[in-house]
Amino acid sequence: MELLKNKVEETSKKITQYGYQEGAGMTRLLYTEEWLAAQNTFLDLFEKNGLQAYSDDVGNVYGRLEGREYPDQVIMSGSHIDTVVNGGNLDGQFGIEAAFIALQYLKDKHGSPKRTLEVVSLAEEEGSRFPYVFWGSKNIVGIADNEAVKGLTDNKGVNFVDAMRECGFDFATDRTVRKDIKAFIELHIEQGKVLETEGKQLGVVTSIAGQRRYNITLKGEANHAGTTPMGYRKDTVYAFSKICSQSIDKAKAEGDPLVLTFGKVVPKPNTVNVVPGETLFSMDCRHTDKDKLISFSNQMVEDMKQICAEMEIEIDVDLWMDEEPIPMDPTLVDLIDTTFEAKGANYRRMHSGAGHDSQIFAPRIPTGMIFIPSVAGISHNPAEHTDISDLTVGVEALINVLYELAYK
Ligand code: GLV
Ligand code: MN
Ligand code: MN
C-alpha cells in the first residue's frame, strides 16, 4: 500500500508539471507544447520501467508488457492526457498513472502475463481545443472523422492539421486500426458526489450517459447603447438569457438523470456601450436514456427558435456531438463486481454522467470502468481532488481486475 501510494505521488508530480499553473489548475490541450511534453514523459517512464514504449500515428502513447501465452490478446487500460481549460490533474491523467503503476506492480510481483497488458495515454477526449471529441480512442478503433477535423480551428485560428504537424504527426489517413484489444478497463475519478455521499470507496460503472453538444449563434443588431431605445433593439444577450433561463427551468422540471449546461457564452462585440449584435453559446445535454435525450434536446432547440422568431433574431444551430448512452460490457461489469466482492471492497454499481473514452471502445471491445470518489464531487475545476488513500485503493482495484484478465 505504501509502495503504491509513493508511486502515485511520484508519477503524478512528473506529469502534472506540464500544464499546471498556480491558481489556474491544469490546462493541457491537444497538440500543445505541454501536451507533447506529458506524452513524451510517459513514453520515457514506460521505457525506463521495462515496458515496450511506442506512440501511434496521432500521438496516443503506449507501454506494453508482452503476454507469454497469448501475445496477440491485449488487455488495455488507461485514459486521456488532455484536460479541460482550468481543470484538475486527475481527470484522465490519473487513469493513465494508475494503469502504468498497475503494470509495474504486476510485472514485479507475477512476471510476464499470459495475455499482453498495455497502458495507454490517449491523445484527446475533452474537445477543449477543437470542437471534436475522443480523437485518441476513435483513431484506435478506426472511427475518427478525418474530413470533419480537417476544417477545424482553435480559439486562436490554428488549424487542427497544422497543430498536429507542429507536434510531429503527419495527417496520413491510412492509420492502424487495433484489432488485438480483447478488453479495455478505464479507472477514473467519479467527478460527482455519489460515492462520497454514500461513503463508498469504489464504483463499478454500468453505463455512460449519452450526450449532445451544440454550438449556437444568435444574430441580431449591434447598435449604440445610448441612442437605441429599448423597443428598437435586437439584443442577442437578452435572447440568450431568455433561452437559458427557460431551458434550465425545463431541465429542472424534467429531473434526474437529465442534465443541461450552457457553459460557454461569447457576446459580440462584448463591450459596455454596444448592444450585443451577436452571441455564440454552447449547449450540453445528457441523459442515460437515448429517446429522452433526443426528445428533450430537440424540444430545447424548438423553444429557442421560437424565442428568436419572436425577437426577430436569427439563429443557427450546430449539433456537433451526438453520442448515445453506452452500456459497459455485462461480463466485465460482473467480473469487476466479483473481484471487488472477493476483496471485501466497499463499492456500488452506478452510471457515469461524464463522457469517457470507454464509450468509444465499449460498442467494439469489451469495456469496463471503475470509479473512485471525488472530494465534494468537484471536477473540471482546479479544486478537483481525491484523497491519496482513495487513489491508492483505485490502483489496487485496477491491479486486481487486470490480474484476473491478463494472468488467469
Ligand atoms: C468529459 O469530461 C465530459 O463529460 O464533458
Ligand atoms: Mn473531463
Ligand atoms: Mn475524463
UniProtKB/TrEMBL annotation:
Allantoate binds at residues 213, 273, 286. Gene3D superfamilies: 3.30.70.360, Zn peptidases. SUPFAM superfamilies: Bacterial exopeptidase dimerisation domain, Zn-dependent exopeptidases. Zn(2+) 2 binds at residues 91, 126, 380. GO terms for molecular function: allantoate deiminase activity; manganese ion binding; protein homodimerization activity. It comes from the Bacteria. Binds 2 Zn(2+) ions per subunit. Its cofactor is Zn(2+). Keywords: Hydrolase, Metal-binding, Zinc. Belongs to the peptidase M20 family. This is Allantoate amidohydrolase.
